[in-house]
Structure formats: structure tokens, C-alpha cells
Write a structure and sequence with these properties.
Shape: globular
Number of helices: 3
Structural class: alpha+beta
Order of helices and strands: EEEEHEEEHH
Number of domains: 1
Strand content: 35-45%
Radius of gyration: 14 Å
Helix content: 10-25%
Largest sheet: 7 strands, mixed
CATH architecture: Alpha-Beta Complex
Oligomer: single chain
CATH topology: Nucleoside Triphosphate Pyrophosphohydrolase
């Protein structure tokens, strides 16, 4: 494990009061539902990384609109040692083209309301419900809801 947090991004796309989530194929959070996203590559901007990860994991072409939140994901072993620390930067994106499908790091994709996310409990990654509620509110304010 590196001593520094790893910067990563998550893409939040809103459609009819729901957000698009992917079920992760790989660690961390393998098997759990979360936003399309991943590490920010050296020299890559946050918005650019969100759009790239969205395409890789869902097949959608998106447009980054707003950076609107950040989430610390910190995991420790039983002795308290740091396994990993990701800083996930949430980006509201607009759907431009494509049909959602499971891509490289995803087992499946689906649309979820915040209440459905809450009901899923342990099957979702950290802070997904809070980010969903924020993204839906922001999308409504910006009139950025996907077609």
C-alpha cells in the first residue's frame, strides 16, 4: 500500500430520479454496487477521468457538468494498518449517447433511486446513497436530467 491517498473519480448520471450504478467486478468493493469510476491517470483532469471511466464501465458517452462532492474510502486491516485510501471525486455527468451495458470493471449496470440504494444496504459501496441524493438534487437544479 502506498502511503498517499489515491485520487479517483466517480461519474453520477441521473435519469428520471435514479442514478446509474455498476456492480463491481474487481476489488475493492467487488460485488457491490457503486458509481462508474476509477483512478485518475497522471496528467488527466478529474472531469476527463470521469467521462473515460463512464465509457469504459458502461459504454455510455457522457459530458462532465459539475464536480460536486468527495468521498474518503479508507480500509484498515484488523490490526489497524492501512490497506488502502481512495479519495473519490464525484462528477455530475450528462448522458450524450449509448446504451448502458457492463464494461471492463463491471458485472452489471442498473438504475437506482436513493430509496432502492438504502434498501440494498451492505450491497452498495460507501456513501452511494448520499451522493445519489446530492446528484439528483443538483441535476434537477441544473435541469441536467438525462433524456
Amino acid at each position: 500500500m502506498t502511503a498517499r491517498p489515491t485520487p479517483a473519480t466517480i461519474a453520477a448520471i441521473v435519469h428520471e430520479g435514479r442514478v446509474l450504478l455498476v456492480r463491481r467486478a474487481n476489488p475493492p468493493d467487488q460485488g457491490r454496487w457503486g458509481y462508474p469510476g476509477g483512478r485518475i491517470e497522471p496528467g488527466e483532469g478529474i472531469a476527463e477521468a470521469a467521462v473515460r471511466e463512464l465509457a469504459e464501465e458502461t459504454g455510455l458517452v457522457g459530458e462532465a457538468l459539475d464536480i460536486f462532492s468527495a468521498v474518503d474510502v479508507i480500509d484498515r486491516d484488523p490490526a489497524g494498518g492501512l490497506r488502502y485510501h481512495y479519495v473519490l471525486v464525484a462528477v455530475l455527468c450528462r448522458w450524450k449517447a449509448g446504451t448502458p451495458r457492463a464494461g471492463d470493471d463491471a458485472l452489471e449496470v442498473g438504475w437506482f433511486s436513493p430509496d432502492e440504494i438504502a434498501a440494498a444496504g451492505a450491497a452498495v459501496s460507501f456513501d452511494v446513497e448520499r451522493v445519489a441524493r446530492h446528484a439528483i438534487r443538483l441535476a434537477g437544479e441544473r435541469d441536467a436530467v438525462c433524456p
